């Protein structure tokens, strides 16, 4: 089903949930949000009314809208609105190999699985097939914004830009930058830093021509990681950053062997983070994927440069990289978002990433015997939802635009629906289980007004089936029964 | 949809996958398995034929069956047969609170969440509602055998037995035994060890009357854990074990605080495991849930008594209990199965438990710097699938009957279906994504003959949507489009 022609004005009615702070969700019951579908913005909010109908009437009156020109979306029992997810670190090109980890750690997995897969994108037709599947899939999981890496291939990268624009997923598109033939395979390596810059520029110009104001798609500068780029390429990318202030997604200290290799390659730098800093790539728009094995000194430097971190718990477990310390980074003033890191992360789902963020933090806690210390590393359900929305918005520099429900923000949102198990009428629930399209989250009668519980149930057992509708910038981009 | 009337004979055609050893899956391509639906048994196997049709003809000829009296189930592209999952540790009564962990560790979570929930089952109508939802749900995830704990309530426990028999899920039903009022809340505590034994006996007799040969449902003796039972109750349960050799599910060394409390309560025992041994409960049919924090000496004792372990990785992470060392237990000769441990485990899915078993083992590996040592703790995809099938069968004492595809075993199986992304015809795939009932596992054209990859993709991204059909003892018990 394609997104239907949207009307010019919508009113969303029901219960709204979003992050108020890192630690706290805000619940707005029986509320209404009015959306201008043309510019995609929230134009008014009626917070916590006595009924959905009263919220609607108040909005119509205040805005001088007549009901017949407005599309109404109304929550049913077990449904609520939640901000769209922001995936701060994801390799679109690796979508076909999600779950394939026969090689056991980062470097051997890159050589054995990832590079041969990325080579396929020399064929732009393969790119169109896979990228389309990837964007449809991530939209279906409620990912309204994604910071994508592609491959070195220009036509394939342009194809991803086209598809994001067509399917309307807000996206940063980073053509993978790699020109260091000491590390990169010959079939996946720009011949010189000049070629790297030229091809990167070609993609940037293409995206700028398609979406000059970066309403939906934005270009990014994506040096794969310190070993994949020559010093000269890193310096030149830094120059491009200074001129254009684009997002700079890259990888940092994912795995011990990688950290060791970087130290051997750049012995004078003193730390992995310092390598990026030395070449001018530790910027306020740099998004450092992983950052599992960073020192206190590196954390200070990241904070000083206002660089950001993308936490990728699914990947950190699947590739045996380790457990990143999110609370520790927060305590040092670093902004952190969440990334699926497909396909180091095995899942396209940000909800899965949020769930793993909780679980890994609890395994970190299990290593400590002091209860107070344990509480300092645990991530709560509200905290991981913050990472997945407002935290991510800050990381990609869009916190003025997305991540929560406020007037003048864009309407990037999901309608979440959970199963209601009626105390009588079990048959309906059983049919739903058989049909399989209502997901695994069952609300029993006594759950219905306990919002913290409903949200926790969703985070622990939810999946794409619970994302009933997804909007980006005021328009419906995904819908299921 | 209820299971249709099964015909007397079936032939399953296609590709079959099951565990050959702990480390190795066996793939049988273009094969056929003939099933006598009346006694539920596999009567013949035609392994790796040149085509499904030839496999069918060979079976019909050998068995002197005519095609028109046989129901044929045939794999489509992306489909294969796999043994049903065996959940060796699951609390049916906790199904309504999956994902609710506001209290942060075992003991406080038991008091704050679990006990108040278990109290609801005093009302047998609540039990019928929840247990029905639970059994439907776990069947839909391919769980063909479950070792269930209930609560102390007799009518509610009988209700679970009735429901498992009706919906035909092979189940061990353990009425929860707890009579120690130093630990158990007054509303959830048998008044004496005599009452505990009487009520347990009443449930056993009920199950024996409903299913005298334990074809589908079997009673179990379920001392909750060392702190919940009085020494006299444990001794008397041991006497019942000696007379009846029923399964004895219980908990062991889940969490450090619990281990400490047990040590303080039984200072003379010397170890948690020794407590059970002292009261005659460390038997060859004892299934020790968790066993996260056991010593070398305890492992030796478990091995000596031939007791079994239920590994519960979802729960061990969610409750911050720690990481159980499965490979270490295997190396010491202990049989290990897999448990969801709902709702310490947040998910009803054994596939999720298998996935978490991989992920947690990789986080264990990440703590080691020596590559050879890392390889000794990593669990592979074939290994976790062994835990979920043959390993579990051994743990519950049914390895002669279920866990793999061999002649004279019962047909407890799943038909797994993954999405095939056609190189052209993307629309079909997109429709499937929209409808949401085909799940998240996408096979691209180049995946199609790589069976290790297809299985890994299923383990990492599969869910109940991939369990298209589920059979227990030769009869179809769950089906979806």
TrEMBL record, chains A, B:
Pfam entry (one): Amidohydro_1
Pathway where this protein functions: Purine metabolism; guanine degradation; xanthine from guanine: step 1/1
GO BP annotations listed: guanine metabolic process
Key words of the record: Hydrolase, Metal-binding, Zinc
GO (cellular component) term, any one: cytosol
All copies of domain Amidohydrolase-related, residue ranges: 82-477
Gene3D superfamilies attached to this UniProt entry: Metal-dependent hydrolases, Urease, subunit C, domain 1
Molecular-function annotations in GO: guanine deaminase activity; zinc ion binding
Family membership: Belongs to the metallo-dependent hydrolases superfamily. ATZ/TRZ family.
Protein name per the record: Probable guanine deaminase
Organism: Metarhizium anisopliae BRIP 53293
